[in-house]
Every structure is written in C-alpha cells, then in structure tokens.
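## tool: complex_structure
## caller: assistant
## args:
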Amino acid sequence: KAGVTQTPRYLIKTRGQQVTLSCSPISGHRSVSWYQQTPGQGLQFLFEYFSETQRNKGNFPGRFSGRQFSNSRSEMNVSTLELGDSALYLCASSSSGEGTYEQYFGPGTRLTVT
Amino acid sequence: GNSVTQMEGPVTLSEEAFLTINCTYTATGYPSLFWYVQYPGEGLQLLLKATKADDKGSNKGFEATYRKETTSFHLEKGSVQVSDSAVYFCALSISGTYKYIFGTGTRLKVLA
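## result:
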C-alpha cells in the first residue's frame, strides 16, 4: 500500500502571498489531519477532516484553512503569509480518526516564507 | 486541558546502553497513548501504542506501558543502536475529539 504523499515537498514564498499544500492519504483512509511543526512550538494540530467534513480545528488564525475532497485527498491553504508561517507542514491519515487508531504521516512540506 | 510532557533532550547514549525517555500526560477521559519516531528529513512513524491502562506496546525492541496511576507512558529499550538516533514523540488521543496531542519531542543521539 502506498503511504501518505504530500506535494510539494519544498516551497519558498514571499510574505503576503498565499500557498496551497496537498495531501493524498493512504488508500481507504478517510480521516486526514494537518500539523504545523516548528522548532519552537513542536507539533501543533491545525485541523482534521473526515468524509469532507471538518471535525476539529486547532488554535490557528483564519488565514489557515483546509478542505477534503470526495476521494479523501486534502488541501490546506494559508493566505497572507507571514514570516512565522515558515514550518514543516505534516499531513497524517487514519482509517477513522478515532482515538484508538494510529495516524500515518507523510514526509511533510517544508514552507519557507521570506 | 489535555497535554503531554516529555523529558528535555538531547539524550546522548553509547551503543548498547539502556534507554528511558519519560512521558507523562494530563487528560480528561481515557486516552490512547502513542510513541512516534522522526528520522531526519522524514515524517513521523508510529513506533508503538497502547489503548488502555496496563497495556504494553512494543516494537523493534522498544517498549512502553500505559500506567494510569502515574499517568505515564515511558519509552524504554534495553540496548540502543546508532540507527536509533532520531527524535521521539509521545502523543495521546481521546476518542471523539479527532485530535492527537504531541509532546515536544526528545532527541536521542547514540554514539558508536
């Protein structure tokens, strides 16, 4: 089974621009979560989607948004980029998103904002 | 609120030494507990998990026991290898929240 894939792997953007990151979950997985990883804050939960519905979101400003398509693929968007948005963005998929089920992570998208 | 606390790193050990990485949690309800490992330039990989009190998760020589009385899930390995050098994350999830909470990670460096 193919793992979680994320595109692009690396991205450089300028302040004020917007960016869209993509995640394809493991086949059959319907839950997709997004995390922001930085050296200072560690892994911070952004949001979780299941069957195109957002079921939970973390404490991030409205500039961060996401969506999930009917094939379970997910995208996250960050508008009006700030320098502090530079981070590794990780996507994880799970069969259900329920607490007893482990998540499988993609390799991440490294976003640099200049 | 729910949270995970891990010991500060980095942890530096010689090959074949015994490893313990401490993890304690605070949770409302009954969480499932996980250890993930992250190698340089990669995403996180599940190392082991435990879903109820007194469960022991194990994988690749690593073990951790879900201790409800001490709210802990310490990671142990009897004999580490250079290839175990990585960052280790403790995490919890509570059913119905659809959210995983991670500790800050502990970097392990094993010297030959």
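## assistant note: The longest strand of chain B covers residues 86-93. Chain B touches chain A at residues 31-32, 34, 36, 41-46, 49, 51, 89, 93-105 (CB under 8 Å). Handing back to user.
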